[in-house]
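Can anyone check this?
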Amino acid sequence: MGDFVSSAPVGLKAAVYEVSHSRSGLTGIIILVAILSVSLVAAFSPENVVEKWNDPQA
């Protein structure tokens, strides 16, 4: 009965701390940044990148 199990992190600060101090959390952040950067390139590129990606002749 003397064992105490810590609960899940509560709040944004605790969640950010937990994510930034684990290898899987850092890997997830890297993957999210990569996905967002590819999406931003497709959305804000001056050329129509999406059409070029779908064009087999490009």
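Reply from J.R.: I decoded it. The first helix runs from residue 12 to 20.
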